[in-house]
Amino acid sequence: LSAPGGVSLVVPQPNINATVAQNILLSVEYSCRGVATIEWKHVSSWGTTKIVEWKSGNYVNISTFYKDRVTTFENGSIQLLNVGMRDAGYYFVTVTEEYGTNTYGTIIVNVYEIIYEDLHFVAVLFAFLAAVSAILICFMWLCNKSLHLFQKKTTHKLTASTTEEIELETIEC
């Protein structure tokens, strides 16, 4: 991108995909004959925010919201530390030459969350199934014990009644 006044700007990576808490480099490279002023803005659904403005080899003015999160570089690039979901959007860089000529560049940043909910769901489901299995095993053990006790009582009664019949038969003869 070359403007008539001799300002040129190159954006080597116009799309950046990042995950939450990652550091990203918004890389550009400009050249001009005189002293340039570089300005970065962020535009998203939350609005437009001026990030930083500086004059090459001179002052750097970083907005309060980005104070501890932005590093500027002489070639016009900035590094954004610890990105969050609110950092997704369009980043516009403007390079203005001291004679008033300027050029623009745009970088689109997509920020993705690392989804742990699926893993969490699987862990909870596994714990639930393990608990249900343990309860069923205990229930089956109790049923088995009850059945053995019931069979012992029934066998004992049968033995007693058979003995009585034998005794009764013996007496009748």
From TrEMBL:
Top-level taxon of origin: Eukaryota
Note the SUPFAM superfamilies from the entry. Immunoglobulin (SSF48726)
Question: Which keywords label this protein?
Answer: Glycoprotein, Membrane, Signal, Transmembrane, Transmembrane helix
Q: Report TM segments.
A: 119-143
One GO cellular component term, please give it.
axon
**Could you tell me which residue ranges the Immunoglobulin domain spans?**
13-112
Q: Where in the cell is it found?
A: Membrane
Pfam families xref list = V-set
Instruction: Identify the stretch annotated as signal peptide in this record.
Output: none
Quote the InterPro entries the UniProt record gives.
Answer: CD2/SLAM_rcpt, Ig-like_dom_sf, Ig-like_fold, Ig_sub, Ig_V-set
GO terms classed as biological process: filopodium assembly; positive regulation of excitatory synapse assembly
Descriptive protein name: VSTM5 protein
Organism lineage reads as: Eukaryota, Metazoa, Chordata, Craniata, Vertebrata
Gene name, Swiss-Prot/TrEMBL = Vstm5
